[in-house]
Write a structure and sequence with these properties.
The complex is a heterodimer of chains A (about 425) and B (about 300).
Chain A (H helix, E strand, L loop, with lengths): L1 H17 L11 E6 L3 H18 L2 E6 L4 H13 L7 E5 L3 H4 L12 H4 L4 H6 L1 E2 L2 E2 L2 E7 L1 E5 H6 L9 H17 L6 E4 L6 H13 L5 E2 L5 E2 L3 H13 L13 H9 L3 E6 L2 H6 L10 E4 L12 E8 L6 H11 L2 H11 L2 E2 L8 H6 L3 H10 L5 H4 L3 H17 L4 H17 L1
Parallel strand pairs in A: 1-2, 1-3, 8-11
Antiparallel strand pairs in A: 3-13, 4-5, 6-13, 6-14, 7-11, 7-12, 9-10
Chain B lengths: L10 H36 L17 H8 L1 H33 L5 H8 L1 H4 L2 H11 L6 H9 L13 H29 L3 H10 L3 H29 L3 H6 L9 H11 L3 H31 L1
Classes of the chains: A alpha+beta (about 425), B mainly alpha (about 300).
């Protein structure tokens, strides 16, 4: 009998211990935010959280989410699918508003039109689903063209290429000459060619800049099976093995950056983060690189829009307080701090004229123009099916790049597949 | 299981049987809860059009998901790839594992250290070792090409190990064999050490050659261990995910059943369709399990 009593007591103790304590003793509002938690991010976010706590008396807990975007999405889907009140604020990727809109509150009632006008219209547009602003832009990202200015000057080019055809020609000439001179490992151009979301970004840039549309237009029209798009992808296929290493179809952002940073690529397409790394003191190409807008294919310099936004959960018990913290995080003060300390491009247009931010991010001026014209991926048009649309898109492009399908066949198949997916 | 009886059970026997059932019931309940209930739930979900993390209610759609499944070319490619991968890796692993186990069974200096070192590939998490391999296999700056092409001149150009369909499958199989051969070696080694030395001594006295001894003594007595290793490895290989996801993401026609399942269930959030795929994977594995169980049982009664 004594043994039974002991076992029962232990079980009860475990059960009681597992019960979550949601409210602290003083009835203080506790806000939990699931955000960027890579080393420096965490420190800066903690600093901002502490300042907010001092001002308002609320308590902020920063939940460390996974580093990989797709894993972060899986985690969010679990919380949101269970309608969990545990997380109040979510840091979401630029392509998730369409997918997760039903789980977030509309932020428009909490901000005046003047307050919202401070942010890039393209980002606000991206975050508005069916008339509801489901996320506030936090920091921005867009594809850029990196190039070796020392090599361009050495071969007589005063300007980086303005068109994709020019880039192809310049890359081929410089690569051939450099290899003849002994640099046998150098390649002309490197980008993200692996079959993942990154390829959707790169391919959309080729497609949109050639006038081929944006995969799915705002009105739901599918635009992939058209001559400009087919031309753009055929051109890209021509690069593989000539100016791009055959393995480029397995590269993500980091692999491309490694090759460029070692000095073995003349041009690279990548996000802004690579700039400070390529110019770091231990980089072989320090001081030899520069960035510019991506080339055009005849229809404008198109960069794929990236970046992260802040949303407030519909299941949060403290929506009003959560919005205040979001307002603080995306304020001029907080964004400037993050820009200066971590080179994160602000989502507020005003900060692009700021001298201190420009000192921290030398290419700031070209970024503002880029963001104003950036092409977003069709996450809103595709809604909850965006992942499937993007997967079918990058699978089709990958087949073209690896040569297992011609561009015409791949686009025809893709058109049919996307129609099926969207009709479901 | 209950043999035919010529007379009714005595009180003692009845009590023993009842005790046996009482001891088994907790274990059976756990298996029911962890194994059977989720299985039934998955099957139920596979008959609906459920969508992950969505407020949209799931509707009953009967066997429509299964109809889509059998008509989806990608599913059959995934099935083919999984079977090719399984047969390829398991057969090579078994032979290599056996060879390594025989080597480790011999007496030599530093044997303990070598045995420990051999286990390292198995100890590393697959996702980690697959990532390390994928860095080594990068065509332009990877270590493998640096060694084989730049230094040893075995190939004229740097080989795109992960970028070509056939090569990618080959690379992934090599990574998997590298990781799991130690496991087979370990199990076979345990079986080898159970074989009494006297058998070999007696055979030598009778004049049997080493090869004869290997074929007539070692192999037959090793069969149970090899079979156990085969069962583990086959079931693992049928569920291969990590190495494929890390190296090719399932592109270049290298999709496996598990990556196909993940893509539809988690990436596309088609819970209903994904559940149908899960049920089908369960059936494929069940076929292999029943084959092995039959093989084991035959051994048991012989």
């Amino acid at each position: 009998m004594k043994r039974v009593a002991i076992v029962t007591l232990c079980v009860l103790a475990i059960l009681v211990g597992c019960r979550r304590d949601m409210t602290s003793n003083s009835g203080q509002v506790v806000l939990r935010i699931d955000a960027d938690s890579v080393a420096t991010s965490l420190a800066i976010n903690q600093q901002l959280a502490t300042e907010f706590e001092r001002k308002t008396g609320a308590h902020i807990e920063i939940i460390k989410g996974p580093a990989s975007a797709s894993e972060r999405l899986s985690q969010y889907l679990q919380y949101l699918g269970a309608k969990s009140p545990d997380i109040d604020i979510y840091q979401i990727d630029v392509i998730w508003p369409g997918m997760l809109a039903e789980h977030f509150i509309d932020l428009k009632p909490y901000f005046t039109p003047q307050e919202l006008a401070a942010y890039f219209p393209s980002l606000l547009d991206n975050n508005t689903v069916a008339g509801r602003l489901v996320a506030l832009p936090w920091f921005a990202d867009a594809g850029m063209l990196y190039y070796r200015k020392d090599l361009l000057v050495a071969y007589g080019y005063q300007q980086p290429p303005a068109r994709w055809d020019e880039l192809g020609a310049m890359a081929e000439r410089i690569q051939k000459a450099e290899r003849a001179a002994g640099k046998r490992d150098i390649w002309g151009f490197v980008f993200q060619g692996r079959a993942y979301e990154g390829l959707t970004c790169d391919a959309l840039e080729w497609q949109a800049s050639s006038g081929g549309g944006r995969i799915i237009e705002q009105d739901g029209r599918i635009s992939v099976n058209n001559p400009p798009t087919i031309r753009a992808f055929s051109r890209a296929r021509g690069w593989i093995g000539t100016i791009c290493p055959p393995g480029v179809t397995t590269y993500e952002e980091e692999e491309a950056r490694h090759l460029f940073q070692e000095g073995n690529a003349v041009f690279m397409r990548n996000w802004p983060y690579a700039y400070s790394l390529a110019n770091a003191s231990d980089s072989p190409v320090r001081g030899k690189i520069d960035v510019t807008l991506l080339p055009t294919g005849g229809a404008g310099h198109m960069a794929c829009l990236g970046g992260w936004q802040l949303s407030v959960s519909r299941y949060s018990p403290h929506q009003r307080e959560a919005v205040e913290f979001v307002r603080f995080l995306a304020s001029e003060y907080a964004e400037k701090l993050r820009a200066v300390k971590m080179s994160l491009l602000p989502s507020r247009m005003g900060l692009y004229e700021d001298k201190e931010v420009a000192a921290a991010i030398p290419f700031l001026a070209s970024m503002k123009k880029t963001f104003l014209e950036a092409v977003p991926r069709p996450s809103n048009a595709a809604g909850e099916k965006y992942n499937e649309v993007s997967t079918r898109y990058f699978q089709a492009i990958h087949r073209v790049l690896t040569g297992s399908r011609s561009a015409e066949d791949a686009m025809r198949e893709l058109d049919q597949t996307l129609r099926e997916v969207m009709a479901r | 299981m209950i043999s035919a009886r010529s007379r009714p059970m005595s009180d003692l026997e009845r009590r023993e049987e009842r005790t046996a059932w009482m001891l088994l019931i907790p274990a059976l309940l756990v298996i029911l809860l962890i194994g059977v209930v989720p299985l039934v739930q998955t099957f139920a979900t596979s008959l609906s059009d459920a969508f992950m993390a969505s407020a949209r209610p799931a509707r009953f759609v009967g066997l429509r998901n299964y109809a889509h499944l059998v008509r989806d070319r990608e599913f059959w490619v995934a099935l083919r790839n999984t079977l090719v991968f399984t047969f390829g890796t398991v057969s090579i692993e078994s032979i290599l594992g056996l060879a390594i186990a025989l080597f480790l069974n011999a007496d030599f200096r530093g044997r303990g250290l070598v045995r420990a070192a051999v286990l390292i590939p198995w100890a590393l998490p697959t996702a980690v070792s697959a990532r390390i391999w994928s860095y080594m296999l990068v065509d332009t700056y990877g270590v493998v090409n640096d060694l084989l092409v730049t230094r040893m001149h075995l190939f004229p150009h740097k080989v795109p190990w992960m970028a070509e369909p056939g090569l990618a499958m080959f690379s992934m199989m090599v990574i998997d064999i590298w990781k799991t051969t130690p496991f087979v070696a370990l199990i076979v080694l345990a079986g080898l050490q159970l074989i009494p030395r006297q058998l070999y001594e007696a055979a030598s006295v009778d004049g049997a050659s080493r090869m004869r001894q290997f074929l007539s003594i070692t192999l037959p007595l090793l069969r149970p261990s090899i079979l156990v290793a085969l069962i583990f490895r086959t079931l693992d290989a049928l569920r291969v995910f990590d190495v494929i996801w890390v190296v090719t993401r399932g592109e270049l026609e290298t999709e496996s059943l598990a990556t196909y399942n993940f893509r539809h269930m988690i990436d596309f959030r088609n819970l209903g369709y994904g559940s149908a795929v899960s049920v089908l994977i369960f059936l494929v594995i069940a076929v292999f399990v029943s084959m092995y169980v039959t093989a084991l049982r035959r051994r048991g009664t012989s």
